[in-house]
Amino acid sequence: QVQLVESGGGVVQPGRSLRLSCAASGFSFSSYGMHWVRQAPGKGLEWVAVISYDGNNKYYADSVKGRFPISRDNSKNTLYLQMNGLRAEDTAVYYCAKDMGSNSNDYYGMDVWGRGTTVTVSS
Amino acid sequence: DIQMTQSPSSLSASVGDRVAITCRASQTISSYLNWYQQKPGKAPKLLIYATSSLLSGVPSRFSGSGFGTDFTLTISSLQPEDFATYFCQQSYSVPLTFGGGTKVAIK
What we know:
Chain A contains no helices and eleven strands. Chain A is mainly β. By secondary structure, chain B is mainly beta. In chain B, the strands form two sheets. In chain B, strands 2, 4, 5, 6, 9, 10 and 11 form a seven-stranded mixed β-sheet that branches. Chain B has a four-stranded antiparallel β-sheet with strand order 1-3-8-7, with no helix packed on it.
């Protein structure tokens, strides 16, 4: 079945780095844009970044621009988020999500979500 | 950036009630408006995309309407499994943005 599984979360000190991964299965990964969305404890949803199906287009929230590069390996059906210069305010559950649009540089709804991985930034 | 404002932030309702949640965009987003449902400890689920299209498997008691800047999610007859938090999200332009959420609780 269609599935996304995130990994790589943990507890990290401020200023350090962490890389999140999202393994996809059950669909043609290379045909869909992919997002990272986060949710701080007790808060709402915050979109973090998106990468186009072919990896050529990447967009970021201002809060992570320049710190959290998004990437993908279509040969491994895997999405990544490299998190550098972590701050306390980056503490959240990080979800990867599949966009509905196929082979498109436009973005629609996020129709498949992983269960999330928790990142805690604390000294 | 496009700001998304949901109202109310919370509501109490009974099983069988008709419930409406509104979402307003700070500028026009055409029909690029999506609705998600999230239950505690779970990932969000897409309910409605492009303002009014129900994702396959979503009950028909859910409906969406609107255009431009003002949008509404309606639940025609609230069921026990509908008690959750609902988020709107615009996909008109990056950065994509979510509304603050509406928590639907049992009265």
